């Protein structure tokens, strides 16, 4: 009777360690993204993002109607704009970062969500920010698609409704890409002035 318990305990321990390894595989791209932004390693942070899934979310049904070249350019420009606009803003908040507490990931097939509490120590008060990250499983592992800050400020939903949607209505994908190219050029020009 004792011999049957040992393999069961060993099997349960193996299952638990595999689950923990799976949880870490989901959490790793989120942690990589945050650390890359925090320490000004934007190229590394961008590798943690699921560009195509972001494009599908941002363009909705238009994603399937545009050419592969337009998709590729959209993803490249969108990620460049993220690194040029959003990453510096987040980096400024992370200067006072005390810790980030991650929840257990919720995995459903090839998608996952992981919640976190980000603790920022401002000079006069401690601030806790609730954030959740949506991920997809890609051929290279898990990648971050979207970030939602509590209560429901989804980064991609806000960008789609405030910026992408109006530009698409004005003139379609070429109008949108042109506006993105122009904004990228402005960011690059500002970057060279600063150095």
What CATH architecture do you see? Roll
| Helical content band | 55-70%
* CATH first level: Alpha Beta
Outline the biggest β-sheet: 6 strands, antiparallel
Basic shape: globular
Provide the gyration radius in Å. 20 Å
How many domain regions? 1
Low-pLDDT regions: 1-19
- Average pLDDT rating: 87
* Terminal residue distance: 73 Å
What's the CATH topology label?
Answer: Nuclear Transport Factor 2, Chain: A
Short synopsis of the structure:
This protein is of the alpha+beta class. It contains five helices and six strands, in the order ααααββββββα.
Written overview of the protein:
The chain has one domain: Nuclear Transport Factor 2, Chain: A (Roll). Strands 1, 2, 3, 4, 5 and 6 form a six-stranded antiparallel beta sheet that branches. It starts with a helix and ends with a helix. The protein is of the alpha+beta class. The radius of gyration is 20 Å and the shape is globular. It is built from five helices and six strands, in the order ααααββββββα. 61% of the residues lie in helices and 23% in strands. α3 packs across α4 and α4 packs across α5 (155-194). 17% of the residues are buried.
Summarize the helices and strands and which ones pair or pack.
Blueprint: H1 2-38, H2 42-47, H3 51-59, H4 68-94, E1 97-102, E2 106-108, E3 111-121, E4 126-138, E5 141-149, E6 153-154, H5 155-194
Antiparallel strand pairs: 1-3, 2-3, 3-4, 4-5, 5-6
Helix pairs in contact: 3-4, 3-5, 4-5
């Amino acid at each position: 009777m004792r011999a049957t318990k040992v393999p069961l305990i060993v099997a349960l321990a193996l299952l638990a360690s595999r689950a923990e390894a799976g949880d870490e595989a989901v959490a790793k791209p989120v942690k990589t993204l945050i650390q890359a932004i925090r320490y000004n390693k934007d190229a590394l942070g961008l590798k943690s993002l699921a560009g195509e899934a972001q494009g599908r979310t941002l363009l909705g049904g238009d994603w399937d109607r545009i050419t592969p070249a337009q998709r590729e350019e959209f993803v490249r420009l969108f990620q460049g704009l993220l690194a040029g606009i959003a990453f510096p803003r987040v980096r400024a908040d992370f200067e006072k970062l005390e810790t980030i507490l991650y929840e257990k990931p919720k995995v459903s097939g090839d998608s996952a969500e992981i919640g976190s509490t980000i603790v920022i120590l401002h000079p006069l008060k401690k601030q806790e920010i609730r954030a959740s990250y949506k991920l997809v499983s890609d051929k290279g592992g898990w990648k971050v698609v979207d970030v939602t800050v509590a209560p429901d400020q989804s980064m991609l939903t806000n960008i789609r409704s405030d910026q992408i949607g109006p530009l698409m209505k004005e003139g379609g994908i070429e109008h949108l890409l042109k506006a993105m190219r122009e904004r990228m050029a402005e960011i690059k020009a500002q970057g060279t002035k600063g150095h």
